[in-house]
Amino acid sequence: MIKILILGGGFGGVRTALDLEKKLTHPTSSGQEKIEITVVNRNPYHLFVSALYEIASAYGLKKDPFAVQLKKTVCLPYSDIFENKKINLIEAEIIDVNLNDREVRTKGDTVLNYDYLVFSLGSETEDYNIPGVKEYAYKFKSLEDAILINKKLEELSEEFESNTRTDPFSFLICGGGFAGVELAAELSCCSKAIEKRCKFKGRYSSITLFEASPKILPMVSDKERKAIVERMTKLGIIIMESSSVEEVGSDFIKLKTGQRVSGDIIIWNAGVRANSILKGIADLPLTQKGAIIVNANLSVKGFGNIFAVGDNIEFNDMKNQKVVPRLAYVAINQGKIAAKNIEAVIKNKRMKSYDPFYSIWIASIGGKYAIAHLWRRLLIKNGFLGWLVRELVDLQYLLSIFTPIKAMRIFWDEITIFSKND
User: Fold this and answer.
1) Domains detected in the chain
2) Helices 178-198 & 222-234, crossing angle to 10 degrees?
3) Which pTM was predicted?
4) pLDDT band with cut points at 50, 70 and 90 for residue 321
5) Using N-to-C axis directions, what is the helix angle for 143-161 and 178-198, rounded to 10°?
6) CA-CA-CA-CA torsion for 131, 253, 229, 389, nearest 10 degrees?
7) What pLDDT is stored for residue 31 in this prediction?
8) Angle formed by the axes of helices 383-401 and 404-418, nearest 10°
9) Residue 371 above 80 pLDDT?
């Protein structure tokens, strides 16, 4: 029996597992060796991180102390994804990986053996060792992070409803990438909904987005950035570029310029790093930033039976010498290549090189409004049309991992819950 072990069930890991199951567990001849595919993940669900900003900003839902309704929209059960598939799921936390003995140890000292291994462990929040980030800032990387922000939002809205607060509530969002832009925009729309409900005269909130680089969203063109900034300005969002954070406190951030900005909630979304567990794995080749070094075919350097995909790798695009960005569809494409190459090795065929593609992006900028950059120079600036494209992209992904009925049910739940404040 050939054992394939996939560590992590993110976008890349799920795609790798599903493609391998389709390619290898339905043999066309009786002579093929039996294949066992196992996914190891800490949680029993696949997190749809692309919608985390919706979770953080959802408002006006029925009181739910356990956030069950919100969780259902982004927590996609592996039991549904792998239903009727020859894929095993082990819900466990990975403690160590022994590459020489081909063993993976999980919490509780369970040892898993493998013939082929795929790293898909994702990333963690990068705080750059800035004082106060760990202690005071709300992170924006996990489901728990998004729910904490949502609960804080509810607490503040209750203060306005009870007239115990009249001063505007201030959000300080650190990080001007896509996630930071989308969160800022959606919080602005949410704030307007709270103003109407509370019949608040004046502004409920102020939102400031800080970016250390000279420009937010460095991967987009100046023309595209201008359209995005114009929309954000209409929403009342203050954008502060070239604003590196030096320190974070319980109710303020201090910039390297010496400027101190007060706020009620500081949200840190200024970068990610590869999973820290990688640094403890002996003989695993890593970059200075702790990401896995891979070959052109996504096999780990020095190992013919180990592959890596997603946020835990650093892949240089030879066409422009740039590091491939950490995006969901990029991880999915890498998962497809990893699956093809594992199949190739098993069947003694030539492996395929990974040709990065990452020029497509869609930025949701509050409510039913998005700007989409599609193939070549096709830019959709019509906000509602861009939003429709974004929804269709999400639906396409759901259809790629679920049956049509399940995909449509989840998609409809997302639309009805997240559109309340649009």
Assistant:
1) 2-42+92-125+273-346 (3.50.50.60), 133-270+360-418 (3.50.50.100)
2) 20
3) 0.94
4) confident
5) 30
6) 60
7) 57
8) 140
9) yes
The answer to whether residue 265 scores a pLDDT higher than 90 is: yes
CB 264 within 8 A of CB 135: no
CB 365 within 8 A of CB 371: yes
| Choice among 49-58, 101-110, 151-160, 225-234 with the minimum mean pLDDT | 151-160
Q: Using DSSP, state whether 145 is helix, strand or coil.
A: helix
Query: In whole numbers, what is the pLDDT of the chain averaged over residues?
Result: 92
Spatial separation of the C-alpha atoms in residues 148 and 152, rounded to whole Å: 6
pLDDT for residue 151 is more than 60: yes
Angle at 51 between CA 251 and CA 205, to 5 degrees: 35
Calculate ∠ Cα 145-140-77, nearest 5°. Answer: 60
Per-residue burial over 136-171, b = 16 or more CB atoms within 10 Å of its CB, e = otherwise: bbbbbbbbebbbbbbebbbebbeebeeeebeeebbb
Residue with tokens 């954070």: 245
Place of tokens 């909130």: 205
Mean of the pLDDT values across residues 95-121?
A: 96
Neighbours of 398 (CB within 10 A): 20
DSSP 354: P
- Answer for the pair 311, 317: CB distance below 8 angstroms, yes or no: no
For the cut 70, the answer to whether the pLDDT of residue 28 exceeds it is: no
Question: On the CB side of 204, how many CA atoms lie within 13 Å of its CA?
Answer: 24
Strand partners, 307: 118, 299
What tokens appear for 343 in the block? 């199949």
pLDDT band at 160 (very low <50, low <70, confident <90, very high): confident
* CA gap 27, 20 in Å, rounded: 12
CA angle 94, 337, 389 (to 5 degrees): 95
